[in-house]
Design goal:
By secondary structure, the chain is mainly α. It folds into 2 domains: 69-125, no CATH class; 130-347, no CATH class. It has 9 helices and 8 strands. Helix 6 (225-242) packs antiparallel against helix 8 (262-305). The longest helix is centred in the last third of the chain and has 44 residues, at 262-305.
Amino acid sequence: MKTRNLISFFIFLLLVGTTISAFGQDAKEKTGTEGEFDASTFILEHIADSHEWHILTKKNGESITIYLPVILYSKEKGLDIFTSKKLAGGNEYKGYKLEEEGDLKGKIVSVNTQGTVNEKNLPLDFSMTKAVVGMLAAALIGLIIFLSLSRSYRKSGISHPKGIQSFLEPVILFVRDDIAIPNLGHKYEKYMPYLLTAFFFILINNLMGLIPFPPPFGANVTGNIAVTFVMATCTFVITQFSGNKTYWKHIFAAPGVPFWLLPIMIPVEIIGLFSKPFALMIRLFANITAGHIIVLSLICLIFIFNSLSVAPVSIFFVIFMDFLELLVAFLQAYIFTLLSALFIGMAIPENH
């Protein structure tokens, strides 16, 4: 057991080392001839979504990049599929361009023959970005894990957990016994598939985001507000469609509230319907993004001070933050699932 723990620790240190090395190579690109280093640009580029997957930069300046598929649809041109390499470096291709500045930075826009951006006629973008590839990879990993777990149960039945069962079974029982049942009561079985899916989807993406490479690892999926928005919307939709008469009565005709106060209370209750999923969205997005920013900021200290004497202190705090991020990965999956179960449970109260 001690040998296994020691090997795990050295693997973790290796991942931290490769993280700092990979980010360090990219950081050198942001250091100008006068030694100025743009830390904010460096950090924002690494946490933002992208149409390409930059792996590292060689000493000779050559960049190793995976260009992802671009899938666009517009009424004038129809469906267009090509690699994002065609748009790299500000190039135009088939009347499209990847905007590099302004409000549309990072988006693919249509341009006319004069090269002017047509902001009123933006194409529908179904491209495979880093976040999309990361989500698909997380879904695939989850399917592989749980299908293998299902096959194991079919073969051996309910017995002493072995292998991957010994890790997953306690987690599943934790979600059921400590999250679903206390908040949903005897109706918990109906919502278990969603709660387990949300928990493991967030957890897998959080853990994948801690590993810098190879792709599909390193994508900041749960730090993308569009992803957390969709997940919060799923909880919102399930909550509203699960609401019973008692739930809606508390919103539009709260018991014990004077009639003259209802015009004030009803708008407040309706605002509360949307503020709950909004808080769910922001909490997950902000915590994961903040963790990535802190780790990258600590690495940037070496290049900001332009001194190797800062490196030991920076690396020590990076290792500390990586351990903390590992805890946050589990904690945020737990909090999102817990609040989802709580909101759904509030929509299905028993009529006393």
